[in-house]
Amino acid sequence: MQRLQPIVRGPRFLRVFKLMLVALALIPLFQITSATIPQIALGLAATSSSELPPRFTVPASADVGFPILPTSQDPEAVNAQTVCPGYLASNVKNTSSGITADLKLAGSACNVYGTDVSDLTLAIDYQSPERVSIHIEPAVLDSSNSSYFVLPEGLVPRPASEGGNLSSSAFEITWSNDPTFSFAVTRSSNGDVLFNTTGSKLVYEDQFIEFVTSMPEDYNVYGLGERIHQLRLGNDFTATTYAADAGTPLDYGVYGTHPVYLDTRYFEQSSSGDWSYFTGNESDPEGNYTSYTHAVYNRNAHGQEVVLNTSSITWRLLGGSIDLFFFEGPSQPEAIRAYQSVATGFPALQQYWTFGYNQCRWGYANVSDLQDVIDNFKKFDIPLETIWSDIDYMSQYRDFSTDENTFPLPEFQELLSQVHANNQHYIPIVDSAIYIPNPDNTSDAYSTYSRGHDLDLFLKNPDGSEYIGTVWPGYTVFPDWHSDKAVQWWTDELTAWYKDVPFDGIWIDMSEVSSFCIGSCGTHNLSLNPVHPPFLLPGEPGNIDYNFPEGFNITNSTEAASAAAASASQSSSVASATATASASAVASSTSTSYYRSTPTPGVRNIEHPPYAINNVNGDLSVHAVSPNATHTDGVLEYDVHNLFGHQILNATYHALLNVFKGKRPYIIGRSTFAGSGTLAGHWGGDNNAKWSDMYYAIPQALSFSIFGIPMFGPDTCGFAGNSDEELCNRWMQLSAFFPFYRNHNVIKAASQEPYVWSSVIDATKTAMAIRYSILPYIYTLFWKAHSHGDTVLRALAWEFSSDPSLRSADRQFLLGPALMIVPVLNPGATSVNGVFPGLNGGTRWYGYYSKNEVVDVKPGTNVTIDAPLGHIPVFVRGGYIIPQQKPGYTTAESRNGTWSLLVALDKNGEAQGDLYLDDGESLVPQDTTQVSLVASGSTLKASIAGSFVDMNALANVTILGITGSPSNVTLNGQSVDSGVATFNATSKAFSISGLEAATQGGAWKSNWTLSWT
Question: The Glycoside hydrolase family 31 TIM barrel domain covers which part of the protein (predicted)?
Fold first, then answer.
């Protein structure tokens, strides 16, 4: 057997060689062949015929990097604050919108984690009354990028100045040279110091930038994604951002990069009328509080750490510039809106059908599998909007291909034709790496690669050769989005493929960008292609997943015991095989010796920067394209790694504009950056079938509301591991209130479609009935997000900003302003604790199902809410009107349902709401209608503006919190003879039904007033 040619890189060659021997000794144990395991072959779905030749397995050592100890955890690490000199400001000049100055090292260079930049420039710009920027970069930029890289506006737009000045600004910036340069940002309205580097030093090197701001006691910071963590980050936490293919481990940075945070500060008014900062001690439910929130965005795409200490926040960047933007707020929604308006853009308006239910699995291995799933949903009358394909459909996992044996085009096209005829949709996965053919096998030609190669648009090695990593299909190359030809090539490939596979949107995966080996491991090894990844795939011998949710051993003790025994047996077998292989290989040291890179003046260590961030995969090259990969413009991957995911979303967006002329592109992507929400949505990544993962989906979703990506949802019921009935029951109901609603799990795990369990069928249909009825409300929320920067999913603290007890609340949430969801997040529970915010201010809450007002609840206390399995508590906030339609099997059917209105009156007997209508798909709709709904006194008025025609009648109106027992109902002064009015004295709900005859031709064709006496 031909062996993998190792890439030798300096001092670790001996250690890598030892690991290679171990891995190569293991290959015979785990070699995947068509003869031994015909059903899995290269992958786990049958990707080709049973005649596939054996596949060479890339050694596991190929993805083993240097043992890296994060510098922040290294006891030998030097504290830059103690050894570096800082800077002094000079040549300070006032401009029409701010200040400019020169910054010069205040002493000898420390060169602690790179080469100090001796001369910097400072620019303070009062960009608008609500926004100020502070920009620091090298005085002389190196055009060759060999010393440092400052993010060009062509890659990430920079918020532009709008002619602001100090006199009109919500902020005041001061600076000092005592003892070295520092600056402070103060909120003008109340004198609160928001950012203050006094007492610390600015450190600016070619591979390390550090600046520190002091913070008040027990501060409240949110954002800095992407990671699986509580919503409030806490004051003893390191937020690392380096786009990583790593599943969903707790607390580490994972797929996306969003260097922005919200800082919310509460103030308490004493009996004397003075205001003092609320320190986070137990809040008084009867106290008098107010809050101020600002946002801080650092426009930098390098790998970075933000260290949240007890009384300070430290930013540490691996390059680039300091490009800070402060947004006033002063509320959380206003701060989010301000950030999105100029830094990211407002989120894309999704097509209406995208809010329907989605079903996916890695393991739908052929056309028949997809057909069976579609048929089963129909059989059990569970709404299904979109069927998805994971990598199973591809020919040997190659983009823009279909397996001729399992997904023959005639059968596949017939299936998709039926899907579309039923007003349903289809989404396939597209990966971010392109297979490079085996040059010794003429039948291995792959035209997508050939066309891209001819255009010279793949990432390169430093020597100019193509960078060749390995992903699912084997050795692969990676599109270089810096090439001006790349987007057109991608557009052409997607457009051509659409003619064979008429998809409705695209799912982008592996876009961090991920590679399963370190460096250009495919160079000189292409004769082995296609190859098996350097790890066991799910379901392969030695990698059967026996994990089940917490509590499974209680509800399913026999099955849990069997799974535990099988798992122990598997672990023992794998350990024995590993020990046997290791015994025949060169023995390696049992002690860990961490690799520490030391700076060389004037030279950047690209692969192992001297400062090691707390990257989830350790070495920056592990499970990723290495930092030394080179773009066509000479830019190194080191400097733009975090942007690949955003750039492939941009390319896909423009490709779909070409495929679907005039329609909104629908894309769900994995790796994102600031601004990705204008292009795509995001799913929560490779989570686990665990109760804890279901909980973490809530703070993750709320964080993406901050980031401007509201089209978010987790893999419902969990991706990895085996779900069970109870978890899937609860999760299918919870996800019904997330914008992106998809069930997806891993190959060879237990099936978890909602029709697998009878109780999950019932729970799912109950939650879906609510979701599909409120689709007009959800769609209107997205229109508001798209046009005004409103949030869709909302933290309680954002809507009730005067209550500090809510600052960490992330176990329940709001869908828009009107609906509060209180899910069960623990196994075995039949009730859930929930809080009802705003009671001090007179907020009313009503049960969605019972229509009763929630009473006998004290402010600031948890209430036990009945929640038997199959029931998710939902509450309606007084003061809001929710437009609804009769739900159907698909969104198209639902859009043809009759209208109804749910009116929840506040303490003053008033409520308001709105509705946005268009064709649900056009990028720029020609006809739109906006409806304003206002309830006051004994009337409900609808004011209509626009030209979009909706022919559906209004069927009923339900008014909650009404007093008395009305009997006479009129519409525009005319008695509604056909209507039936009922008043429930217990719930105080007044229902008016039978309005169809009075609203023939459409509920929104003209203004109307509904009155009752």
Answer: 347-781
The secondary structure of residue 853, as a DSSP letter, is: B
| 3-class DSSP state of 456 | coil
Domain 789-1012, CATH homologous superfamily name and number = Golgi alpha-mannosidase II (2.60.40.1180)
Cα–Cα distance list, 581 to 21, 26, 36, 574, 762 (Å): 9, 6, 21, 11, 51
Question: Under DSSP, is residue 583 helix (H, G, I), strand (E, B) or coil?
Answer: helix
CA distance 401 to 408: 11
Q: Which of 63, 512, 619, 790 is catalytic?
A: 512
SS3 content of the chain, % helix, strand, coil (to 5): 25, 25, 50
Q: Let me know if 512 is a catalytic residue.
A: yes
Amino acid, res. 567? S
pTM metric for this prediction? 0.94
Q: What is the Cα–Cα distance from 42 to 471, expressed in whole angstroms?
A: 12
Q: What are phi and psi of 728, to 5 degrees?
A: -70, -35
Residue from 268, 334, 509, 810 carrying the catalytic annotation: 509
Where in the sequence of the chain do the CATH 3.20.20.80 domains occur? Answer: 352-528+625-775
In a 13 Å sphere around the CA of 532, the CA atoms on its Cβ side amount to: 26
pLDDT band at 33 (very low <50, low <70, confident <90, very high): very low
Catalytic entry in 210, 305, 504, 686 = 686
Q: How many CB atoms lie within 10 A of CB 390?
A: 21
E strand or H helix at 204, and its extent?
Answer: strand 203-205
Total Cβ atoms within 10 A of residue 475: 26
509 is catalytic: yes
Average pLDDT score over residue span 276-294:
89
**What is the spatial distance between Cα 418 and Cα 398, in angstroms, rounded to a whole number?**
26
Residue ranges of the chain assigned to CATH 2.60.40.1760: 80-149+159-344
One DSSP character per residue, 664-720 reads ---EEESS-BTTGGGT-EEE--S-BSSHHHHHHHHHHHHHHHHHT---EE-EET-SB
Architecture in CATH for domain 352-528+625-775: Alpha-Beta Barrel (3.20)
Say whether 14 sits in a helix, a strand or coil. helix
Looking only at the bridges linking them, the beta strands covering 980-984 and 989-993 are antiparallel
d(CA 192, CA 176): 18
Which architecture does CATH list for 80-149+159-344? Sandwich (2.60)
pLDDT tops 70 at residue 539:
yes
Domain with CATH 2.60.40.1180 in the chain: 789-1012
| Pair of tokens at residue 937 | 């006194």
Relative orientation angle of helices 13-30 and 557-583, to the nearest 10 degrees: 120
Residue 304 CB contacts under 8 Å (≥ 6 apart), including other chains:
240, 241, 242, 259, 298, 315, 316, 317, 318, 613
Average pLDDT, whole number, for the chain?
92
- Angstrom distance (rounded) from CA 398 to CA 433: 9
Q: Which two tokens stand for residue 122?
A: 């400072």
Catalytic status, residue 274: no
Contact by Cβ (8 Å): 491, 594? no
* Of the candidates 537, 520, 514, the residue with the CA atom closest to the CA atom of residue 475: 520
Rounded to 10 deg, the angle between the 775-788 and 758-773 helix axes is: 60
Look at residues 239, 323, 243, 334 and name the one whose alpha carbon lies nearest to residue 295: 334
Helix (H, G, I), strand (E, B) or coil at 561: helix
- pLDDT tens sequence across 692-729: 999 999 999 999 999 999 999 999 999 999 999 999 99
Q: Report the distance separating Cα 876 and Cα 820, nearest Å.
A: 6
Q: Apex CA 273: angle with CA 271 and CA 276, to 5°?
A: 95
- For the chain, the C-alpha Rg in angstroms (whole number) is 29
Token pair 């999105």 is found at: 340
